[in-house]
Write a structure and sequence with these properties.
- With about 190 residues, the protein is of the alpha+beta class.
- The protein contains six helices and four strands, in the order ααααβαββαβ.
- The longest helix is centred in the N-terminal third of the chain and has 26 residues.
């Protein structure tokens, strides 16, 4: 029994299993990025990634499927590569931070004026609305920013009022108004 189990584990070379694992990681990472880029409006980049993704899938999947009955470890390497690729793809997406966000901060009125001036000095457009809280006059400061820049905007708000209520939401469409220059995906 143990001999059969060891035979299953060692039937395929470690190098071949490693290549299946790595190729699947690359394919799924590309797939994750492709979906995100297309959803964010970067269709041309998505098409190029789709072409690379499908070539990888055809060759890796066919290698695994054709050899699965003789070496189940190929399926294990393929599955582990898939899981690792999903993780890596989502991590990469956070790093490249494609897209725009609307940041809204509800602040005491005087701090709202100070934060608005500071944000504008940094080159961001800021729109303010007068608001009324439970006990005092408030200000809502709204800023559209690239996702890459959103942490800087939030940091600026927190530097002046660390108790500020801050709401960030991704936007898919933006038309008109002032927005800091949008960075291109690839420079």
């Amino acid at each position: 029994m143990w001999e059969s189990f060891i035979d299953i584990l060692t039937r395929t070379s470690f190098l071949e299993l490693f290549l299946i694992f790595m190729a699947k990681i690359v394919e799924v990472t590309i797939s994750t990025l492709r979906l995100i880029l297309i959803n964010k409006g970067y269709r041309n980049y998505g098409v190029v990634l789709a072409l690379i993704e499908i070539f990888l899938w055809v060759f890796v999947a066919s290698s695994v499927i054709m050899g699965l009955s003789e070496s189940p470890m190929k399926g294990v390497a393929y599955g582990l590569g898939f899981a690792a690729g999903v993780y890596l793809g989502s991590t990469l997406e956070q790093k490249i931070a494609v897209g725009k966000v609307l940041i809204q901060a509800v602040l005491p009125y005087d701090k709202g004026l100070q934060i608005t001036n500071n944000i504008r000095t940094l080159g961001f457009g800021a729109t303010t609305l007068d608001a009324h809280g439970k006990d005092s006059k408030r200000m809502v400061v709204m800023v559209f920013a690239n996702r890459r820049d959103s942490k800087n905007v939030v940091k600026e708000i927190k530097a002046i009022d660390e108790k500020a209520m801050i709401i960030s939401s991704e936007t898919s469409n933006l038309s008109g108004g002032y927005m800091r220059q949008i960075r291109h995906l690839i420079k």
